[in-house]
Design brief:
Layout lengths: L5 E4 L9 H6 L6 E7 L11 H9 L4 E7 L3 H4 L8 E5 L6 H14 L2 E6 L17 E5 L15 H14 L4 E5 L4 H10 L3 E4 L9 H16 L1
Parallel strand pairs: 1-8, 2-3, 3-4, 4-5, 5-6, 6-7, 7-8
Helix pairs in contact: 6-7
């Protein structure tokens, strides 16, 4: 599958007291990104399944859940009604455990993604990419919004793109952290398919215009 350009606004940067209204401000988003944090795997607490379910009921947009939590084997299957569920490689014992959990999620009816922090290499995943629908490369340390983009992670994106294309896989590459117009273009050139954008979208005067601008920058770099 050829490289895609999908924009996924992250509600972590939205107004938690008015999530439905904020979601309505980005009707042209391709995906909606939902960050679940447990204050254990990452040093922050966002929300859990009840809030995520409330969001899902208020949108027709594809829902992309990012679990920044410990013990995803226990909790991830509860999110199977969402479009995609991503958990962290660092939160499971090893790659075999990650492959097994991805299989469980797929069997439950959702896509399965695996995420890596900025300091975690992707090489252990390269022979297992067919077992995942998505690989999320964190371009900031997970746990807080509004951080600056770390361009050094783009080497991981290029390694993933090379293997995905060589093997003819449908696995998507997602990037999350510090994504705006300029960094989306850099990321697209490296091979990203899905762009998670939080503070660069929500809180702006025209969130949908920001989504459109990020998409145009990424698509232009791919072209």
């Amino acid at each position: 599958m050829s490289q895609q350009t999908l924009i996924a606004p992250s509600i972590l940067a939205a107004d938690f007291a008015d999530l439905a209204a904020n979601i309505a401000e980005v009707p042209g988003a391709d995906w909606l990104h939902i960050d679940v944090m447990d204050n254990h795997f990452v040093p922050n607490l966002s929300f859990g399944l009840p809030v995520a379910e409330a969001v899902r009921r208020r949108t027709e947009t594809f829902t992309d859940v990012h679990l920044m939590i410990e013990n995803p084997e226990r909790w991830a299957p509860e999110y199977a009604a969402f479009g995609n569920v991503t958990f962290h490689l660092e939160a499971v014992a090893d790659v075999d455990a990650a492959v097994a959990l991805a299989a469980t999620l797929r069997a439950a009816g959702t896509r399965a993604g695996i995420s890596v922090k900025p300091g975690t290499p992707v090489e252990p995943l390269l022979d297992h990419l067919a077992d995942f629908d998505l690989v999320l490369v964190m371009s900031v340390e997970p746990g807080f919004g509004g951080q600056s983009f770390m361009p050094e992670v783009l080497g991981k994106v290029r390694a993933l793109r090379t293997r995905i294309d060589a093997d003819g896989l449908n696995t998507l590459i997602e990037i999350d952290g510090g994504i705006g117009v300029e960094t989306a273009a850099e990321s697209a050139a490296a091979g990203v398919d899905v762009y998670v954008a939080g503070s660069s979208v929500f809180g702006k005067d025209d969130p949908q215009a920001q989504v459109d601008a990020i998409r145009a920058a990424a698509a232009g770099a791919v072209a």
